[in-house]
Amino acid sequence: MSGACAAQAAVAGRCRPQVTSARHATRCQARGGGGGGGGRRQRGGGNRQAEDVEIFNIESGWNVEALEEMGDLLGADGRGWSVDAAEDDGATSDEDSSGGWSVEVVAGGRSEVQQFSEGEYDDAWLDEEWDAAAPSSSSSGGGSGSGGKGAVATPPTFNSRVLRTAEQQLIASLPRHMLRRLEEEQREADKEKAKLKPAAMKKAAARLKTHEQLRIISGTAAGRRLRSPQGDQTRPMMEMVRNAVFNMVMSLYGCASGLPAETRWLDLFAGTGAVGIEALSRGVGECHFVEMSPWVVSNCLNHNLETCEVESAAVVHTGKAEDFLRRAASLNRFAGGAFDFMSVCPPYELVDYNELYDLVEVSPLLHEESIVIVEYPKKLAALVRPTLGPLHKLRDRRYGRTFLAIYGPAAAGAERQQSAERGAAQAARARNRLQDLLADMRAEDVEEDISAPLVTKLEWQSPLAVLPYPDPRLRAVNVRIGVFDDSLRRLAEEMFEVMYQDDGVGLAAPQVGVNVRLMVFNETGEKDKGEEIVLVNPQIVNTGKSRNLFEEGCLSFPTIYADVERPSKVRIKAQDLQGRKFTLSLTGFPARIFQHEYDHLDGTLFHDRMEPDVLATVKQQLVEMEEAYLTKNPGADIQRVA
After folding, report:
1. Which one, of 487, 516, 511, lies nearest residue 501 by Cα?
2. What pTM value is reported for the model?
3. Nearest-CA neighbor of 166 among 325, 307, 54, 17?
4. Rounded to an integer, what distance in angstroms lies between the CA atom of residue 477 and that of residue 516?
5. CATH classification (class only), 210-419
6. What's domain 454-632's superfamily in CATH?
7. Catalytic positions, please?
């Protein structure tokens, strides 16, 4: 039978009376057993005063426990339905002490009562009695009244939502003032949802936007732009890192100009496909891409394959990389068998690196000569294993906040040692060149900016600490340094300590609250490794024409990382700790570090350099940092993000 008085409504769903018009009513009566285990005690008889009872809540829906209160509101006029409890005290007859329920159908002066014991209920009886009591369509006036059976009515709604049968019957029984109250509460709830909806929609819309800032670096598709989703759906490998990876891979594989056409590449967590497409562009014969997001596959990955004209050599698998590896372990020659190269660049926070390593180690998709690239965050460095099945870790590199481990065949141990020695020799030569540049500093007249003030005494409070955005001192004017004594040396030393402590590769004096034109950096980001560079009163002479896009972070924005485009080369003039003037040319990662810190000296922050679509992905985080700062520093004069 059609669902009735919401309750299942009434207590434990033992009776489900049906109400179809205001002239008909059904009553569910709880008959309490003599032992007190039956129904609830009936509230006072006579004329009962109606009162508001909360039977509906916007968040949780109908309040079944409060439905029996409807007897107070509706029982007096015989309209609708009621749930009443029989008296416990004074029950002397067998009928009164039997427990269970009785259902009474009341219609047109006809009344039929049927009693049921605990656990019993007969749907067929109530259907028959109700059909007999209900008026025919001819007696209902044939109109659109609630009792007309032949009428085709529009489904009833409440605040634009189509009601279920039980809800229809309950609302039909409510007095008007309660309906008005429910409608008012619904409107208030809709207003609250409307306040949240724009932000949620904006975030969802951002995920559906794309940009084309990444490029293929080398090979047949060199220079082609790749479409990438805006936001945090994917983390494509930046051009600088990708170029370094392929240089190492080709060196390990013994290829000078390209990768052999008979080789195969597996790109796990493919995202935009930047790594796999780069491999195809450089000569790989076949590449399999594994990406779990259908939207990214259809809107970015497939588009990029077509743009770079490599779709004939590509196979796309839509699904989780972990499931792909499990299927490969259970199926013979899955995906064509083992691969020569495998790139594993997962979203750091969304994967279990232990599980991932376990799956790759036993995977038949590797052979003894395979080369595997694994990208990982520094905080998970302890999980990176020295071996991966038959393969040994041959390289471990850091590029900004990107860390890479490269695994290769065990037979390459000797080559690895030789390569390490060659790398050490190259590093020594690079250090010597830098020392030569510093040692052969030309006593050039550095053009001074006479508009910038000159400080002759350095003062600061120890210990130094990095200022968080949007501290006004990050935007303040920074004066030139005119004193080269022990205080300058101690300031530089303390800045290095703060930089290493906060896991940075560069730091400008304004970031620690000292508004002078001084910066320090070490591209390795590790103490006692690499070269520590101190630049006093630096100036940019010129920059190269080529520009690179790279993911940057900033110690003043500890949780924000985003793409920033900068020149790949820069020539500068500066002074050292003794005040001697010199010129220096920087390329690659050191050039980017310098430009980032140089912006701090001019009061420019790295989000000022972001493209609008990139800035939109981090704007909410910037606003949250601003609000948090103002909470701690009420009335502070800060520059808000545009």
Report:
1. 511
2. 0.47
3. 17
4. 8
5. alpha beta
6. Peptide deformylase (3.90.45.10)
7. 597
